[in-house]
# Entry
Amino acid sequence: GEDVEQSLFLSVREGDSSVINCTYTDSSSTYLYWYKQEPGAGLQLLTYIFSNMDMKQDQRLTVLLNKKDKHLSLRIADTQTGDSAIYFCAEGSNTGGFKTIFGAGTRLFVKA
Amino acid sequence: DADVTQTPRNRITKTGKRIMLECSQTKGHDRMYWYRQDPGLGLRLIYYSFDVKDINKGEISDGYSVSRQAQAKFSLSLESAIPNQTALYFCATSEGSSYEQYFGPGTRLTVT
# Structure
């Protein structure tokens, strides 16, 4: 079945760049997403990329998609302590009724 | 006011008890979802509903049931709670085939 994998932890220093990686298995994925979960809260969509794109930039966020390798990454430039959260990679497909499959989440620690 | 609300926010119950978790939304979305979150496992889909008359099983529906009482309300029931149903439960909504899901704040359920 479809699967999304990502590492569970990442620690960076404030001001450095963070890169969170994700791999997925469903080649029919239409959308790839990054959600952010802050402590005690639900998930919020951070950014997304369509499967026909290679890169998307949104202020401090850069999403890179390697469709051949089924690899997605999220780069956060100038990481701040407020970026500390869990980041979920997710893939969505229009097959089977528009399912979204989430990864396990990467917990980002930002050290001051 | 929050667009997606969940009640209760926290619940401790004993094995064998019936529990209902409720979700309400003011976004006017037709699609609603129930997920559970476990450490290291990400979000797993329990049930989803594309409209009031449409209910579908997700990845892990055993031991759960749902009711879509109205477009704005989607409740999740555990008929006879067991300890391995201890988890964080999230309700989410989306509009049509939109890529973005909007999450509630979560319900932390502990079954002893």
